[in-house]
Amino acid sequence: MSSSLPHLPRRSVPSLAAGSTAPARDVAEERSIAPAPSAPVARREPHVCAVHGETRADDYYWLRHREDAEVIAYLEAENRYTDSAMLATDSLREELYQELRGRIKESDLSVPEPLDGWLYYTRTEAGAQYPIFCRQRADGRDGPGPEEVLLDLNPLAAGHAYFRLGAFEVSPDHRLLAWSADTSGAESFTLYVKDLASGEQLADTVAGASAGAAWANDNRTLFYVTLDEARRPCRLFRHRLGRPLSEDVLVHFEADESFFVDVTRSGSRRYLLLDLASHSTTEVRYLDADTPEGAFQVVEPRRAGIEYSVSHHGDLFYIVTNDGAPNFRLVSAPVASPSRDHWTEVLGARAEVKIDSADSFRDHLVVYEREAGLRQIRILELGGKAVRRSDGRMLGATGEQVSHQAGDSTIRPSDRLTVFPSAGYVIPLPEPVYTLRQHENPEFDTTVLRFTYTSLVTPASVVDWDMAERTWTVRKQTEVLGGYDPARYRSERRFAAAPDGTRVPISLVYQLPLERPGGPRPMLLTGYGAYGVSFDPAFSISNLSLLDRGVVFAIAHVRGGEEMGRAWYEGGRRQQKPNTFTDFIAAAEYLIAEGFTAPDRLAITGGSAGGLLMGAVTNMRPELFRAVVAEVPFVDVVNTMLDASLPLTVIEYDEWGNPNDPEAYRCIRGYSPYDNVCAQAYPHMLITAGLNDPRVAYWEPAKYTAKLRALKTDQNRLLLRTNMGAGHGGASGRFDFLREVAFKFAFVLDVLGIV
């Protein structure tokens, strides 16, 4: 079991997702926004850099010097200015915060995860910021046994402005817990080991670790990964409990700076897996978890551009790979000799279907796929043979997709959807636009697959799918306090035409009726478009505060993500990166042309690499948008990618290109938001940063704000808000996070003139 998040580069943060019935003012008639006190002006100190024959002067390079008191003073001055400029929204922010908090069930319980006769779960308590991790014996005489609290994050977080749990790994005998925490937002974790019987914290403590860890089957050996000076996970160590850290064995050092290191256990719990990965190349090594002092063996040596992931079952590894298949294929290989020479194809390449990953269970193989922009789950019976269906048809090992049409878009816990048995099938889903999220499914010997189902109108639903009986049971649906009627809202999928003719999907949700007096509706449009990360349509309780005020929420599924398959990703990376920006602009133009919104009622938002998207499109088409919220935006692309000493730079050459190459430099230079700010009118803008952010350094949004303020020709708001005690994801406590959401919503609503 693990709560750890992958150590991934510049992935999106919890973003300003929208949602709300009060009418909007007619902002076509420019509303008066009270002027704020004078904004801070950052001094200019040119830092000259010559690259490929071009000399660039970076006037705000000095803001990188965090240890300089003037830098901190500038960030604090910007925060004071932002607070002053937003003073008129105080009551709106408090109203929004109370709405957001009032919809969530503060005292709640997760669906327990069964494992080896235990039930593991988390619960939250009213007023508490963080969850409590617990377990019970599943086989008590009168039902589950008494609760054991394994880890209460609330007292652990006390005294820290930020607290994030990394590893949460129970030993195979369920007696010990390896857990880690980051208390700054810098994503450097301290690893601890707790004796669950006595509650004692053991002396085995490791600082400067990554988020994950893995136990060997002897319950005494723990594998962990440490970071280098650039915060890259690069060293795998083996630790024997009770021994000093100085005796820990360095199992692997990854010298290639473009690769990250991670360690996990296979779902079967038979093997430890060492994952070595860049953005475009993978190497996996494996070790029998019963022999922790052995040597890791290579599944398939790394080859540039070849990616793969591994799942174990019996004498076989099941491998999802792009070797010979841009959209990936599924193969099997004997554990004794798993290299490419011994691969046997299980599911071949399909132009219309992208395979994401596969998980093994005792009798089934679960394949996560993506088709037509939507996730789906294919179930294969391991060793499956042809069976006869009730209509007399014979089905082979891969079976067929089974369709299901539900009359109600809301799934209830009493719903049970049954389909004809087959040897291979795709789980039927009840809505045309939705998304699925994987659960860990720690129990290997089970026929039940657990996942989360959600859509823009359906709250997240924890579903148990019986892979043998082919039945669907909703174990829990997120409760929306105060009442929620999905019939009041509608979601749909539209397509815009990009300049090159590519059809760009757009997901929308809005409150009915769509047509209202006053013309086009206010809208919040968001996007991401990087790393092959798909921005799937999911329900957000917070969005209701916008939807119920008449705001349409839309997602532009731009290239750079992987919604439409691997080619969609390739079409928005490196030299093709500008497609991400023109796709987003095409989506905005389509929504305006179709009457959903208008430029003076359109706000846009994106975080991290999505903040790069915000900066690029705002430079290109500032007149198209009324307001912009750029969260921890990756905007200083040229300078960051030229500095190999920074975290993530080298590994991200695969994503953006290496600007030491003239052609790559010209491409990046052409869209880098900081480098392309110019003397023109810009929309109202709210920009956020985290002082301890290791993914997008605080100085990127700070420099961007300073340059915008110096060059822009309008009187619109330009606000920078830096969280001085957090990193990439902002506030860590659930109520503190809602305060941040309320702040961003208030900015958007105020600028759009919505009362």
Distance between the termini: 46 Å
Strand order of the largest sheet: 35-36-38-37-39-40-41-42
CATH homology-level superfamily of the domain at 73-102 and 484-752: Alpha/Beta hydrolase fold, catalytic domain
Strand content: 25-35%
Helix share bin = 10-25%
What's the CATH architecture of the domain at 73-102 and 484-752? Answer: 3-Layer(aba) Sandwich
CATH topology of the domain at 73-102 and 484-752: Rossmann fold
Number of strands: 42
The dominant shape is: globular
Q: What structural class do you assign from the helix and strand content?
A: alpha+beta
Question: Please, how many helices?
Answer: 12
Give the oligomeric state of the chains in this entry, treating copies of one chain as homo and distinct chains as hetero: single chain
The mean pLDDT is 90
What does this structure look like?
- With 755 residues, the chain is an alpha+beta fold.
- Among the domains are: 73-102 and 484-752, Rossmann fold; 106-150, no CATH class; 361-478, no CATH class.
- The chain is 17% helix and 32% strand.
- It has 12 helices and 42 strands.
- An 8-stranded mixed β-sheet has the order 35-36-38-37-39-40-41-42, with helices on both faces.
- α2 packs across α12.
- Mean pLDDT is 90; it is low at 1-36, 384-409 and 415-423.
